[in-house]
Amino acid sequence: MKTAVYWKKLTAGKVSCLLCPHACVIADGKTGLCRVRYNLNGTLYSSIYAETTSINLDPIEKKPLYHFYPGSRILSVGTNGCNFACSFCQNWEISQTEQSGRQKMSSAETVELAVAGGSIGIAYTYNEPFIWFEFVLETAKLARKKKLRNVLVTNGYVNAEPLGELLPYIDAMNIDLKSINADFYKKTCKGSLEPVKKTIESSLKQCHVELTNLLVTGKNDSETDLVKLIDYVSGLGKDVPLHFSRYFPIYKSTEPATPAAALRFAEFTAKKKLNYVYAGNLDAEKNSTCCPKCKTELIRRNGFSVEINLLKGSNCFKCGHKIPGCFK
Ligand code: SF4
Q1: Domains in the chain, number
Q2: Contact 3/135 with Cβ under 8 angstroms?
Q3: Across all residues in the chain, what is the average pLDDT?
């Protein structure tokens, strides 16, 4: 266990965690809502520091990041715990339970593995990386020294101060925007929308950001919510890439999988206001990036593979229009 950052002592052996907006007050011998920040004798510890459940060399498209070194691979690491409790969590075995064992893996070993595997960097993913804060910050600093990139795949539920401390070491983020409906966040995710919006808005100023909206059948897929979500994203900028992702019944959710037509409708609607919209988790998924100016297809994907990349640096090879993101 590692002494945690962002907390304060209260009376009677209790502590208050200041890492995320839940602001858990934790009694001695108990954990916060994320189950991985533990009060022992009036000191808060991280019980997942340098311990991982999952390590893979993944295509960057799997995060999903489509405008960040397309076609490259990234060492992806995750562990137990989450500060949300989404009933549809696609990674619930590690985020909501401790079923799979954790293995020790130091920051230095993680960085070494990334270098040895020819990875472009390290993605902190699978569970919520912000509740793994101490390890992620330490590893991200070390990774930077080795010229590796750092990527967060996150629900964005974190307080401004820790976010501000970590962001200078982060190159890209995929942030889940689970819905634009505050009630959905409250009832289905056990979190709240406003802090997520703040994270998105702050992060966009400092690193490359793409957003993902998992469309859960009958839960967050109404046309009203869809239009509001698209309006919010287009208000951030027409160039913010937005991924609609297909949900499958899992964990506590029994609603049928998102119909392909619902994803295509979301994609069609969003493309009226946004330049880069993708529909993921579909069979035979083909998601091309086209130049918004001359409409030329620039990056053709098939699943997680890049079949064609016609970018010239970061620009359209035909008309020279600059495509947002980080490219080789
Ligand atoms: S990080 Fe965990 S312990 Fe801290 S406030 Fe959030 S849910 Fe509670």
Answers
A1: 2
A2: no
A3: 96
Q: Are residues 24 and 66 both part of a single domain?
A: no
- Output the pTM of the full model: 0.97
Checking phi first, is residue 305 left (phi over 0); if not, alpha (psi -120 to 50) or beta? beta
- Structural domain contains residue 326: no
- Measure 39 CA to ligand 1 centroid, in angstroms: 11
- For residue 282, the model assigns a pLDDT of 83
- Mean predicted confidence (pLDDT) in 236-255: 95
Q: How close is the Cα of 190 to the center of ligand 1, in Å?
A: 12
Average pLDDT over every residue of 279-300: 90
Phi first, then psi: give them for residue 26, nearest 5 degrees: -120, 125
- In this structure, is residue 116 part of a structural domain? yes
State residue 177 phi and psi, 5-degree precision: -110, 95
- CA 139 and chain centroid, separation: 17
Neighbours of 24 (CB within 10 A): 20
Domain of residue 20: give its range: 2-46
Which pLDDT belongs to residue 284?
A: 67
Q: Is 115 part of a structural domain of the chain?
A: yes
The CA 297 to ligand 1 mean position distance, Å, reads 44
At 134 the three-state DSSP class reads helix
Mean pLDDT of 61-65: 96
Type of residue found at 45: Y
pLDDT higher than threshold 80 for residue 285: no
Q: In ligand 1, which atom is closest to the CA atom of 37? A: 3
Residue partners of 234: CB distance under 8 A and separation at least 6: 273, 274
Angstrom CA distances, 17 to 27, 28, 85, stand at: 11, 13, 18
Residue nearest to atom 4 of ligand 1 (CA): 17
Q: What is the pLDDT of residue 154?
A: 98
Q: Is the pLDDT of residue 60 over 80?
A: yes
Q: DSSP state, 6?
A: S
Pocket of ligand 1 (CB under 6 A): 17, 19-20, 22-24, 32-34, 37, 83, 131
